[in-house]
């Protein structure tokens, strides 16, 4: 499951940075960059918009996969094949827009252009999670992976991770956009190149290769069941033994107090730096030559 969450998160990030997904950036910046203090609320609202659209799709895919759990070999084979095909389609730039299958998506897109503030951010999330010619194969791959889990809960979590993959880099970009130079922005957008007379894009090719690799991995690990854990079992066992020390009430209170003191210390340091930056500088009047 860990590799599935990472793949879904990475898919969301690459969908955001794809040539079509990058169109979301100006709309989000228009709502947040003028009020930097409201960046976090806008990001949370944007994520809620994503979740309200993506998670039901994931649950539906998981429910479909649950119906096929009796034919697990067929489910794994079909999921792997679809992932590989979607990866190849995306790498070649042959995208599609899954949002056209949803009723009322056109009205939501128009409303997202007319709205302002938090309502507009919410609509951008609700529409941006499924819309986009470039992002269609990526979302399709994540939905296919969710169906392969055979569980509605795990499928919903995967789509929530996909949405988080869009929000986290979007927040970082919104916070650092003014500090990014032309070279950094150019690297972020990627570039086009030509192979056998066909125009390709570095981001779509990279994403397509990731999806293809995920399809091969899904097949070779029996639906990620035999995939080794990212954290060794011995490390998990030691961690569980160490956590047992915190079972006492005194230890738990001590941890809470330590975390509170750490938070207060970090806040004090940040507030002190802010005051130093905003403290007016005193300019001494110029003095003439001293007469003797």
Automatic annotation (TrEMBL):
<feature type="transmembrane region" description="Helical">
    <location>
        <begin position="6"/>
        <end position="32"/>
    </location>
</feature>
<dbReference type="InterPro" id="IPR003834">
    <property type="entry name" value="Cyt_c_assmbl_TM_dom"/>
</dbReference>
<dbReference type="GO" id="GO:0016020">
    <property type="term" value="C:membrane"/>
</dbReference>
<comment type="similarity">
    <text>Belongs to the DsbD family.</text>
</comment>
<dbReference type="GO" id="GO:0017004">
    <property type="term" value="P:cytochrome complex assembly"/>
</dbReference>
<protein>
    <submittedName>
        <fullName>Cytochrome c biogenesis CcdA family protein</fullName>
    </submittedName>
</protein>
<keyword id="KW-0472">Membrane</keyword>
<dbReference type="InterPro" id="IPR051790">
    <property type="entry name" value="Cytochrome_c-biogenesis_DsbD"/>
</dbReference>
<feature type="domain" description="Cytochrome C biogenesis protein transmembrane">
    <location>
        <begin position="5"/>
        <end position="189"/>
    </location>
</feature>
<feature type="transmembrane region" description="Helical">
    <location>
        <begin position="249"/>
        <end position="268"/>
    </location>
</feature>
<feature type="transmembrane region" description="Helical">
    <location>
        <begin position="44"/>
        <end position="68"/>
    </location>
</feature>
<dbReference type="Pfam" id="PF02683">
    <property type="entry name" value="DsbD_TM"/>
</dbReference>
<feature type="transmembrane region" description="Helical">
    <location>
        <begin position="198"/>
        <end position="219"/>
    </location>
</feature>
<feature type="transmembrane region" description="Helical">
    <location>
        <begin position="74"/>
        <end position="96"/>
    </location>
</feature>
<keyword id="KW-0812">Transmembrane</keyword>
<feature type="transmembrane region" description="Helical">
    <location>
        <begin position="153"/>
        <end position="177"/>
    </location>
</feature>
<keyword id="KW-1133">Transmembrane helix</keyword>
<feature type="transmembrane region" description="Helical">
    <location>
        <begin position="122"/>
        <end position="147"/>
    </location>
</feature>
């Amino acid at each position: 499951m860990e590799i599935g969450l990472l793949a879904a998160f990475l898919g969301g990030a690459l969908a955001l940075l794809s040539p079509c997904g990058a169109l979301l950036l100006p709309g989000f910046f228009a709502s947040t960059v003028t009020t930097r203090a409201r960046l976090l609320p806008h990001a949370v609202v944007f994520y809620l918009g994503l979740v309200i659209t993506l998670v039901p799709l994931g649950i539906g895919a998981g429910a479909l996969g649950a119906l096929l759990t009796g034919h697990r070999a067929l489910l794994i084979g079909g999921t792997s094949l679809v992932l590989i095909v979607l990866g190849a389609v995306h790498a070649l730039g042959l995208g599609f827009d899954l949002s056209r299958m949803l009723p009322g998506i056109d009205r939501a897109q128009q409303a997202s252009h007319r709205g302002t503030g938090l309502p507009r951010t919410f609509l951008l999330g609700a529409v941006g999670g499924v819309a986009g010619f470039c992002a269609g194969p990526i979302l399709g791959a994540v939905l296919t992976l969710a169906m392969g889990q055979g569980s509605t809960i795990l499928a919903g979590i995967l789509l929530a991770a996909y949405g988080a993959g869009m929000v986290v880099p979007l927040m970082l970009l919104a916070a650092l956009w003014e500090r990014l130079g032309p070279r950094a922005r150019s690297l972020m957008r990627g570039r086009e190149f030509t192979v056998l007379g066909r125009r390709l894009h570095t981001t779509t090719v990279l994403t397509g290769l990731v999806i293809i690799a995920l399809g091969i991995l899904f097949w070779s690990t029996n639906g990620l069941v035999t995939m080794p854990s990212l954290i060794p079992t011995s490390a998990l066992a030691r961690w569980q033994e160490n956590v047992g020390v915190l079972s006492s009430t005194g230890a738990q209170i001590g941890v809470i107090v330590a975390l509170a003191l750490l938070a207060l210390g970090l806040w004090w340091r940040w507030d002190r730096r802010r005051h130093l930056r905003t403290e007016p500088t005193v300019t001494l009047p110029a003095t003439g030559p001293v007469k003797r």
